[in-house]
TrEMBL record:
PROSITE patterns assigned: ABC_TRANSPORTER_1, ABC_TRANSPORTER_2
CDD domains recorded: ABC_NikE_OppD_transporters (cd03257)
Domain called ABC transporter: residue spans: 16-255
Name assigned to this protein: Peptide/nickel transport system ATP-binding protein
Organism field: Actinomadura algeriensis
Amino acid sequence: MAGSGTAHLRDGDELLRVQDLTVTFPAGRRRVQAVSGVSFDVAVGETLGIVGESGCGKSSAARAIMQLPPPTSGSVRLAGLELTGLHGEGLRRTRRRLQMIFQDPISSLNPRRRVRDIVAEGPRIWGADASRVDEALHAVGLDPSTTAARRPHEFSGGQCQRISIARALALEPELIICDEPVSALDVSVQAQILNLLEDLKARYGLTLVFIAHDLAVIKNISDRVLVMYLGKTCELAPGEDLVARPAHPYTRTLLSSVPRGPLRLPPEEEPPESGEPPSPISPPTGCRFRTRCPRADGRCATEEPQMRPLAPGHWIACHHPTETPL
């Protein structure tokens, strides 16, 4: 059960490229820039994690990739096909190649429909083999004979998320975007869903973009991790590198807040207790994290840092990174 559109691509080849992605929304007479010039790529068979506090723009970026709605500007290319600017039938056909798993598994499922109809909707639209429904349900650990005729309200949150994953799998997509798929679940259920996604990735060769606000969750499932703050990219690195050698002050702040996490900041680097993110309607000049950063200076207020390589595969947007291994 793997997407056919990437048959010519091999593991490690670029599947998704996002370049200078910008998303703005109206806010009264002003506009909120939820995503500001974000760029990244995702290889076939990879899981890219995107992490940041609530309101950092990670979910807005995910929906822009899906063209729900299209980004204000920038480029989104899937296996070389430019998605921005697609309309009508062209966009509809592309949607089969991209699927999304949402944060609230219960509200994302139609309460009036039976599980079989929910999972079969995509294959039915595309005239695909109905046997994919049973296969998808089996793949996520649900028995079609006991679940297919029931409705979502008869299941727990974790089971509903399994149904959502089955719905995504049934179309054999090339890329699945997981938008905080475990944040609404109990901790024990979170682990089950994360393990399930890992198993499905290995079994079907899936490519994932996994979004979360909890770095403890995201570091265990992601090959690489992209850190976002107020619509900007702060740091991008392999998951193990990011945890062992966080170079951006914001990444270090996220790691220090993980219970029993691997990083404890010295007192002079601890973020202020009242350090709430500024409003995205009027973000700080220069570096957007500077108002909460213990390393900020005059340059940070006037010059916006650009992404630059720090080490092989490790990129950062910071004037004063911490380069010493921890």
